[in-house]
Specification:
The complex is a heterodimer of chains A (118) and B (381).
Chain A: H1 6-9, H2 16-32, H3 40-55, H4 69-72, H5 77-86, H6 102-114
Helix pairs in contact in A: 2-6, 3-6, 5-6
Chain B: H1 2-17, E1 27-32, E2 37-42, E3 47-53, E4 62-65, E5 71-75, E6 80-85, E7 90-96, E8 100-106, E9 112-119, E10 121-127, E11 133-138, E12 143-149, E13 153-158, E14 164-168, E15 175-179, E16 186-191, E17 197-202, E18 208-212, E19 221-223, E20 246-248, E21 251-255, E22 261-266, E23 272-277, E24 282-287, E25 293-298, E26 306-310, E27 316-320, E28 326-331, E29 337-342, E30 347-352, E31 358-363, E32 367-372
Antiparallel strand pairs in B: 1-2, 1-32, 2-3, 4-5, 5-6, 6-7, 8-9, 9-10, 10-11, 12-13, 13-14, 14-15, 16-17, 17-18, 18-19, 20-21, 21-22, 22-23, 24-25, 25-26, 26-27, 28-29, 29-30, 30-31
The chains are: A mainly alpha (118), B mainly beta (381).
Amino acid sequence: MAKFGHANIGPSSKRSLPSALLTLAVLVATSALAADVLDGDTLKRLVHQDCGSCHGLSLKGGLGPDLRSKTLEHYDAEVLTGVILDGIPGTAMPPWRPLISEEEAEWISHYLLEQEAE
Amino acid sequence: MKHLFLSLAATLIMTTAYAEPTATGDLGLVIERAQGSVLLVDQSDRAALARIEGLGDLSHASLVYSPDERFAYVFGRDGGLTKVDIVTRQIVNRVVQAGNAIGGAISDDGQLVAVSNYEPGGVRVFDANTLEMVADIPTEGKTIGLVDAPGRRFVFTMWDTGETWIADFSAGAPEITKILDMGKNPYDALITANGRTYITGLFGEDGLTALDLWAETPEPIRVLPNYGRGQEEMPVYKMPHLEGWALTGREFVLPAVGHHEVLWIDADTLEETGRTQTHGQPVFAIARPDGRQVWVNFAHPLNDTIQVIDSVSKEIVHELKPGPAVLHMEFTPRGHEVWISVRDANKVMVYDTRTFEKLREIDADSPSGIFFTARAHRTGL
C-alpha cells in the first residue's frame, strides 16, 4: 500500500465517487508505478512550500487566492484537479502537468478540500 | 513603567552576558519561515548567535534595518510588523497591521516604516520608534514593489490596476503622485542604488516599465517591449524577485519571466545588451557588490542549483548545487563571501566567491531571506 491512506486524508461526507477514484488511483499507482508511489508528505510539502509561493505557506492567499477548505468547498475535486493540471489561462496560475502526475493532482485537490479548518 | 522595567531587565542581561558593547556592523538576520523566528548571525565568525522567536507567519518575509543598525523591522506575511532589537536579542514591539502583507521599506531618514499589503490592498506607514500608524494609503489593489526613495518618499505599484504611486512625506502628511499605465500585472519592482530609476517587471504583458524619479513629472518608459513570455505563454512556477537588481559596471541584469535566461540592459539607455541562457527560470539574479559576478537561483523544480555568470563575458563560469530549495543569497558587503539559504537542508551555507569553496554550514530552520545589517545604508534595501 502506498504511504498515504484514508486515515491521512481524514473522514469526509462527500467523498463517494472521488474517493473511489482516489482509491483506484492509489491502486494503480501502487501496482503499475511501484517505484513511484504517491508520497503524502512530499505532496503536502509541495502544496505549502511551492503552491505557497503565491497562495501563502498557510494557504491563506497572496498574489494567488485563498486555498483553505472553507473557501474551496463549493468546488468539485475534479474541477480543482483540472485547474492544477492545466492552470487558468490569462492568469498567473500555471499548468502543473509538466511537473506532477494526474494522480498527484487528484491527491492535492482532495487534500485542499479536506484540510482541517484552522 | 513597563518600558523602564524592560530596559532595566535588558541592561541587567547585557551586563551579565555581554561585558563588551555589541557592535552590529557584521551581524545579520536569517528568516526561519516555518516557525516564525529569526536567526541572528555573525558574518565574521560565520556563526549563529541567537534565535528570536514569536514573529508570526514568516512565509515570504523580509526586513529592513534602522540607520544605527540596531533595530530590524520584520514584515511577515500575516500582516505582522515586528521590531527586533539585535543588541538585546529580543522583540521590542509588534503590531499586526493588516491581513496579508508582502513587504516593506524604511524612509531615508529612518523615521518611517512602510508596509505594502495585499489584503486590504494598500500601504500603511508607521513611526519607526513607536510603530504607531501615521498614514494609511488604500490603493484598491494588491500592492507590490514598495521601495524607499530619497526625500522621505515611498514608491509602490499595484498588481491589479498597473498604477505606480509616489508618496512624498517630506512635508508631513503624504502627497501622492499617481502614474497610470505602467503595464498589465506588475509583479515586483526595484529602485536603483542612486534612487533615480524605478522599474517594474510585468507579468501580464511584454517588457518592463521604468520611471525616472529625477524627472519633474515621471512618465512610464517602456523597456524591452519585444521581450515577453512568448507566443505560447511559458508557465511561471515562482514569480521572480527584482530586489536584487544587479548593477554590473554599466549594465543591469534582470531575471526573465518564464524563460530560462537573464536579461542584460544598458543602465543609461535601458536598451537590451544581451541574454544569458540559464539552468532554469531565474528567481534572484544578484550581483556581487563589485559587479564582477552575478549569482542566479531558480524556481521549483530546479531550485537546488546556483549559476554564477561573469559580467564581462556574460557567460556562466560556475555552477553549484548547494542542496534542495535554494531560496536566497546575500553577499558580505565587500563581496568576498556569499551566504545561501537552503530551505530543505535546514542550512545556511557560506561560500568563498572567488574559489567557490564552501566555508561553513550553519543550522537554520527552513531558512529563507538573509539580511546583513549593511543594508541599513543602501537605498532600496
